[in-house]
Amino acid sequence: MNVVEAKGFKIPIVGLGTWALRSRDCARLTEQAIRIGYRHIDTAQMYDNEREVGEGVRASGLRSEVVVTTKVQPTLLAPRDLERSVKESLARLDIGVIDLLLIHWPNPRVPLVETLGAMAKMKREGYTRQIGVSNFTVALLEEANKISSEPLVCNQIECHPFLNQDKVIASCRKQGMAVVAYSPIARGGATGDKLLEKIGKTHGKTAAQICLRWLVQQGIVVIPRTSKVERLEENFELFDFKLSDAEMREIAALARRGGRIVDWTWSPKWD
């Protein structure tokens, strides 16, 4: 199994993102993904599907092999709110322990030292095995790593060839953190891109697979979301080919201004 190790914690390099997956479909796709070979499932309080994700994980019969990530929403980062919400998340998931708990978005209204203190407490008390962050900038990563009493194992960020995230990736590596890429195929934007299609033809792969391979070849964890079973298989078939150095450089050159897709009220000032 291909994994990325950060501070002693192993994160499977291909996971299933479950944003916008709902009800029976979510449980079915989660179970199916695990049967195909996925060992990493990503959810969040904000997605309102933790119950269904937990159901799919339990139905697979392989709970002990799967890393389940959930994320605390930005309105619940004050210590008391965070602690209550994490206990509720675990009750909904019903999987014994959360493997990886992340701060979903930074909230400047709540001191980071308080939030990280509560996150560390959740780990010490056995609600989660590891903690990390999401959507953190270079400055926030430096601050978080200085003040956290428990190791932060990853930063989950929007990451795909159309957005240059070199600064944040370098900062994560400097801090010994894994990078987890959400929207790794740019919400479908990879499909139809001429360069990715051309490289795909060379390898007998789709543009989306080229996009995902470009990330995993850099040691970046990917969590593509799909609602189609056939896509689940396609997104997992990334290990039977390799991109050349020239192809890697060509794909990196796709980054452009305005390449960011996810930008909203809670966004920090991006690097």
Question: How would you portray this structure in words?
Answer:
It is a single chain. This protein has 271 residues and is of the alpha/beta class. It has a domain at 9-188 and 220-226: TIM Barrel. The chain has 10 helices and 10 strands. The chain has helices spanning 23-36, 50-60, 79-93, 112-124, 138-147, 166-174, 194-203, 207-216, 229-236, 245-252; strands at 3-6, 9-12, 16-17, 40-42, 67-72, 98-103, 128-134, 152-158, 178-182, 221-222. It has an 8-stranded parallel beta sheet with strand order 3-4-5-6-7-8-9-10. The mean pLDDT is 97.
Summarize the structure.
The chain has 271 residues and is of the alpha/beta class. It is 40% helix and 17% strand.
Helix content: 25-40%
Overall pLDDT: 97
The major pleated sheet works out as:
8 strands, parallel
In what range is the share of β-strand residues? Answer: 15-25%
The helix-strand sequence is EEEHEHEHEHEHEHEHHEHH
Helix/strand/pairing category: alpha/beta
Taking the alpha carbons of the first and last residues, their distance comes to 33 Å
The first-level CATH class of the domain at 9-188 and 220-226 is given as Alpha Beta
Look up the CATH topology of the domain at 9-188 and 220-226. Answer: TIM Barrel
What ranges have pLDDT less than 50 throughout 5 or more consecutive residues? none
- Given the structure, what is the number of helices? 10
Per the principal axes of the C-alpha atoms, what is the gross shape? globular
What is the number of E strands? 10
CATH architecture of the domain at 9-188 and 220-226: Alpha-Beta Barrel
Output the strand order for the largest sheet: 3-4-5-6-7-8-9-10
- Integer-rounded radius of gyration: 18 Å
Oligomeric category: single chain
* CATH H-level superfamily of the domain at 9-188 and 220-226: NADP-dependent oxidoreductase domain
